[in-house]
TrEMBL record:
PROSITE patterns, alphabetized: ZF_RING_2
Protein name as catalogued: RING-type E3 ubiquitin transferase
Cellular localisation: Membrane
Membrane-topology descriptor: Single-pass membrane protein
GO cellular component terms listed in the entry, alphabetical order: membrane
Alphabetized UniProt keyword annotations: Membrane, Metal-binding, Signal, Transferase, Transmembrane, Transmembrane helix, Ubl conjugation pathway, Zinc, Zinc-finger
Length: 366
């Protein structure tokens, strides 16, 4: 074989490969400049060919040039943002009523998963003065004569059960794990989901271009990724300059969390464990205390000395309102927990235990 033939072969080989590859190159796209940039594994249905995306990741633009995704069984969601490196996507409801959509959300047939779930119970309360009780109403689900509320706190749920009708208990995908149950939420925060496959995060990190290996396969490949990152000296410099303080901060943060966990275990908020879906108790089994027992518990008008169990705790944990001067409080003798008299009286008529600690030695009426 002479050198000319070899060169010609190499030339055509190169051209052929170039054409094959460029046929599969997919460019970034977006619905509007302010909308998220779309690239593999996502694709915009009418702007990018199907080989530019991964099954289950098809997006489209609506009439307002918003980026939407259609999740099987759960309907359309607005894509608020995408982080390709950490493989995260943030969704919300295009009609601005996410809680209503959460009632029907089912991710089992999608490529997406939630990081954390927190169970919330939604209530429909008629003639409920939520402002007095400091609950956040879900505005888009409430009407003129009723208010819809959501909570993950067992105490709040039991309080609402006595006044409102339960709509549903739903597992809400939340961005962060809450260390204490949420008393009240309008559930309007974007939901943050992740995907396990295809794994393009590392390719993205190395500034590569992730894509399907060939037209009909679901195998992926990473093109043009930086083979080596920064020079070694620069890596050391970055590690010492940023990594070390970051590490120390992390240790500090973990330490704080531990302390917090430890304190809450020690019984400051024994009721406030992680959320639990509370199945409403049937009302026939509820037996609270009788009026004379309740009346025998000490009552104080604020401004005088009410011995609160924690001096810094100046909120009634039943209605969530702060105590105001001249309000009447009642404390439970066995555990010294204080509440508004009207709140605790109503509570005790339904439940014979303290709403905060519950392990109450109170005598039940004979
Ligand atoms: C959406 O984008 C198209 C093309 O970029 C533009 O012509 C149209 O005015 C946009 N519509 C809205 C509602 O912004
Ligand atoms: C979600 O959908 C799947 C399949 O359609 C079904 O089996 C599952 O029970 C659903 N999960 C919930 C919580 O509704
Ligand atoms: C709440 O209850 C009212 C009647 O009291 C009803 O008209 C309304 O549709 C209910 N709302 C929800 C979201 O269940
Ligand atoms: C709400 O209640 C008021 C007073 O009872 C009544 O006049 C009004 O029609 C009710 N509104 C709705 C939407 O049912
Ligand atoms: C991909 O699959 C389709 C249908 O399954 C088939 O018609 C097509 O020829 C395949 N293309 C390649 C390049 O294998």
């Amino acid at each position: 074989m002479n050198i000319n033939k070899v060169l010609t072969f190499l030339f055509f080989h190169f051209i052929f490969n170039f054409l094959i590859t460029s046929a599969q190159i997919c460019s970034n796209s977006f619905c509007r400049r302010t909308e998220p940039t779309i690239r593999f594994p996502f694709r915009l249905e009418n702007l990018q060919p199907s080989t530019c995306g991964y099954p289950g990741f098809d997006l489209f633009c609506d009439a307002f040039n918003q980026t939407l995704i259609e999740l099987p069984n759960s309907g359309r969601f607005r894509v608020q943002s995408i982080d390709y490196e950490s493989q995260n996507v943030w969704l919300n409801d295009p009609d601005h009523c996410l809680p209503r959509r959460l009632l029907q959300l089912n991710l089992s047939t999608t490529p997406f998963n939630a990081y954390f779930h927190q169970d919330f119970t939604l209530f429909n309360c008629s003639a409920f003065d939520y402002a007095r009780y400091r609950y956040d109403p879900i505005g888009c689900m409430s009407g003129e004569n009723y208010t819809v509320l959501a909570s993950s706190s067992e105490t709040a749920i039991r309080f609402l059960e006595s006044r409102c009708s339960m709509i549903a208990a739903v597992a809400v995908p939340v961005q962060w794990r809450f260390f204490e149950p949420v008393m009240t939420s309008d559930l309007a925060d974007d939901i943050r989901l992740t995907w396990g496959s295809p794994r393009c995060g590392q390719c993205e990190e190395r500034r590569g271009r992730c894509g399907l290996r060939s037209v009909n396969s679901t195998e992926i490949e990473c093109r043009n990724a930086a083979r080596h990152g920064l020079p070694r000296m620069a890596q050391y410099a970055i590690f010492i300059g940023m990594g070390l303080p970051g590490f120390l901060l992390l240790i500090g943060f973990l330490y704080l969390i531990c302390i917090r966990e430890h304190n809450s275990r020690r019984g400051r908020h024994p009721v406030m464990e992680f959320s639990v879906v509370v199945v409403p108790h049937s009302t026939t089994t509820i037996s609270g205390l009788d009026g004379s027992t309740i009346e025998s518990y000490p009552k104080t008008v604020l401004g005088e000395s009410c011995r609160l169990s924690k001096p810094e705790n100046n909120t009634c944990s039943i209605c969530l309102s702060e105590y105001m001067p001249k309000e009447t409080l009642r404390s439970i003798p066995e555990c010294q927990h204080c509440f508004h008299a009207e709140c605790i009286d109503e509570w005790l008529r339904l439940n014979p235990t303290c709403p905060v600690c519950r392990n109450s030695p109170m005598s039940t009426p004979s």
